[in-house]
Amino acid sequence: MPTVHRTPFGHVHGRTETDLWTLDSGNGVRAEILDHGGVLHSLTVPDTDGVPGPVVRSLPALDDYTDKDNPYFGAIVGRYANRIAHGRFTLDGTTHHIPANDRGHALHGGPEGFHTRSWQAEGDRTDSAARLRLTLHSPDGDMGFPGALDVTATYTLDTAGTLALEYTATTDRPTVVNLTHHAYLNLGADDILGHTLQVDADHYLPVDPDSIPDGPPLPVTGTPFDLTTPRPVGERLAREHPQLALAGGFDHCWVLRRENPATLRRAARLTAPGDRRTLELWTTEPGLQVYTANQLDGAFTDGTGRPHQRHGSLCLETQHLPDSPNRPDHPSTVLRPGETLRSRTEWRFPHLGAGK
Fold first, then answer.
1. What is the distance between the alpha carbons of residues 312 and 204, in angstroms, rounded to a whole number?
2. What is the rounded CA–CA span in Å between residue 159 and residue 2?
3. Theoretical Cys-Cys bridge with 255: which of 100, 203, 223, 317, CB 3.0 to 4.6 Å?
4. Number of neighbouring beta carbons within 10 Å of residue 287
5. Residue 120 in 3-state DSSP?
6. Distances in whole angstroms, Cα of residue 18 to Cα of each of 54, 222, 245, 323
7. One of 41, 182, 320, 351 is an active-site residue; which one?
8. Are the CB atoms for 134 and 158 separated by under 8 Å?
9. Residue 354 has pLDDT above 70, yes or no
10. Of the listed 32, 280, 317, 346, which one is catalytic?
11. In which band, very low, low, confident or very high, does the pLDDT at 356 lie, cut at 50, 70 and 90?
């Protein structure tokens, strides 16, 4: 039987109380979520022998999550995930400026994006699922974005072991919105180099030295970005390619195959060494940012004191394409009054029978 539990986790800057919400499927899969940043603090999944283990990397304490240098561990990211070139865009003839926090560009909504906010939280359960509903009000002008935005992010863990994250958002003025989740994944190994990864995409976006899209999508064929069949991550990263050299690994957006933009379809499949655990990522989003933790340097550790190192984990961030407000050839991220943004991503674990 699914359950929901709430326990205190600390206070943000000694003031705002933060709780840890535990969603338990009743069948071995358990998710722990903070209402600060909407952080997925832990996700425990049994392997093929039934032995439970963590599949996301985490930080030990609330102070670590609120550290200004925390690289978005497990957080919900917005108002605009990924990068906006030079921190500016023009919408309906008006230019808006977002604080630049990454090499002169705006990254993940600016320095005080949604990952820094305390969300309102409410948990409930049914016979088939445990659920946590998080809500956030982002006022007009927040980090330079126009329009007051009301966001709901709902985590649902069902008895099959599937964890879903569904977003909705509405605005009172035209604005741009791009939400994602920044979990650092490792399915049970020292690093992710021995994991195999498949991405259901035939094109990717090349980037310039500042990680801003540089030209139109390019075919993956004949490049290390060809993940149309399962490939060992380490083998891909070891290949010589100017794009890998620029980013120090993968930090690129794959353009997912889209027959119907509103349809939930598979984006990626990640498998641990020895096939002990498999994760399938399903989404309604048009893009998938794959980031192989190229910038982690051991400055942050997990609850056991183990440092988070380069290529020790990877992120699979379902989202719209980077810098879309400045790229009319990309799918639009504009949200207008009277419209509702809807987005859904699911983490499925086929080795448990989830999603079959």
1. 23
2. 7
3. 203
4. 29
5. strand
6. 22, 48, 40, 32
7. 182
8. no
9. no
10. 317
11. very low
Burial (0-12, 13-18, 19+ Cβ within 10 Å), 273: middle
Cα separation, 351 vs 162, in Å, equals 11
- CA-nearest of 220, 200, 174, 206 to 332 is 174
Whole-number mean pLDDT of the chain?
A: 96
pLDDT of residue 260: 74
Lookup: tokens for 263: 């349809």
Half-sphere exposure of 8 (CA within 13 A, CB side): 5
Taking only the tens place, the pLDDT of each residue in 115-153 is: 999 999 999 999 999 999 999 999 999 999 999 999 999
115 is catalytic: no
β-strand partners of 264: none
CA distance 342 to 170: 10
What is the Cα–Cα distance from 220 to 206, expressed in whole angstroms?
10
The sign of the CA dihedral 214, 219, 225, 230 is positive
Return the pLDDT at 185: 98
Residues 343-350: what's their mean pLDDT?
98
Query: Could you give the CA distance from residue 329 to residue 210 in angstroms, rounded to a whole number?
Result: 20
Q: What pLDDT is recorded for position 14?
A: 77
Enumerate the β-bridge partners of residue 129. Answer: 158
What is the C-alpha to C-alpha distance for residues 140 and 159, in angstroms, rounded to an integer? 39
Q: Residues near 57 by Cβ (< 8 Å), separated by ≥ 6?
A: 73, 184, 185, 186, 302, 308, 312, 313
DSSP alpha helix (H) spans, 80-144: none
Q: How many CA atoms are closer than 13 Å to the CA of 253, on its beta-carbon side?
A: 26
Q: How far apart are CA 85 and CA 323, in angstroms?
A: 6
Percent of the chain with pLDDT over 90: 96
Residue type at position 104: G
Amino acid at 249: G
What are the pLDDT digits (tens) for 242-260? 999 999 999 999 999 987 7
Integer Cα distance of 79 and 341 in angstroms: 12
Q: Could you give the percent of the chain with pLDDT greater than 70? A: 99
182 is catalytic: yes
Contact yes or no for 135/149 (Cβ under 8 A): no
